[in-house]
Amino acid sequence: MSGTSGSVSAAAAADAEYEILCDVQPDGSSTPFLRHYTTTGTGAPAMSDTLLDGTTAYVPTGTVARCGTTPNPQIDSTAQRQTGVGAVTITAGARSVTLLVFAGSPTVAIGGGAAVAFPAGSSGTWSVDQGGKNGEKLQDAFVFTGVAGSDFIVLSTREL
Questions:
Q1: Of the candidates 111, 112, 108, which has an alpha carbon nearest to the alpha carbon of residue 98?
Q2: How far is CA 138 from CA 2, 154, 158, in A?
Q3: Could you give the maximum distance between any two Cα atoms of the chain, in Å?
Q4: Residue 11 to residues 39, 109, 159: CA-CA distances in angstroms?
Q5: What is the 3-state secondary structure (H, E, C) of the chain?
Q6: Residue 28 pLDDT > 80, yes or no?
Q7: Under 8 Å CB-to-CB from 14, ≥6 apart: which residues?
Q8: pLDDT per position as a tens digit, 96-144
Q9: Closest alpha carbon to 91 in 154, 142, 134, 146
Q10: CA pair distance 138, 108, nearest whole angstrom
Q11: Whole-model pTM?
C-alpha cells in the first residue's frame, strides 16, 4: 500500500464553562454568583467571577462553596440500643438512619406508615448524600419498636 505520511494540525479552539457558586459568610448568609472558566486557543486557563447577570464583576469575601451546602457541616451522631419491649424514635430531619437487628423482630414505621418487621440478622439504612444549610435531609420520622426478645441498635446522624 502506498501513500504519504505526515501530520495534521488543527487550530486550538477557546472553551468557556460556567458554574453557579455561593459566597458563604460566617453568619450563614450567602450570595450566589457565576464563575466563568475559560481556556484560550493555547490552552491557558483563566477564571473570573460575576453576578448572575454574567457581566457585573464580583469578588467573593467569604467561603466559596456549592450553593445549598455547608463547607464543613457539624454532624451530631447518636447510637441507641433497645433490648426487649420499647421504642426508639428518630425525628424528621436526620441525614442518615441505620438499623442493626441482633435478636427478635422489631418493627420500623416511617412517617406514620405501616410498621414493617425486620428479622434478626437484618439491617437497613436510609440516608441522603448532600447536606448543608439548604441541603437534603430525611423528611420522615422513624419509629423502631422492640417486642419481647428484641435486641437492636439504631444509629443516626443529623447536621446541626
A1: 108
A2: 68, 15, 9
A3: 87
A4: 13, 63, 50
A5: CCCCCCCCCCCCCCEEEEEEEEEECCCCCEEEEEEEEEECCCCCEEEEEECCCCCCECCCCCEEEECCCCCCCCEEEEEEEEECCEEEEECCCCCEEEEEEEECCCEEEECCCCCEECCCCCEEEEECCCCCCCCCCCCCCEEEEECCCCEEEEEEEEEC
A6: no
A7: 38, 39, 40, 41
A8: 999 999 999 999 999 999 999 999 999 999 998 766 555 678 999 999 9
A9: 142
A10: 15
A11: 0.59
Q: Are 115 and 107 in contact (CB under 8 A)?
A: yes
Amino acid identity of residue 58, one-letter, is Y
Amino acid, res. 79: A
Cell 423502631 found at: 144
- pLDDT tens for 54-95 read 899 999 999 998 887 655 677 889 999 999 999 999 999 999
Interatomic CA distance for residues 26 and 81, integer angstroms: 37
What sign does the CA torsion over 107, 109, 110, 116 have? positive
Q: Which residue has the cell 435486641?
A: 151
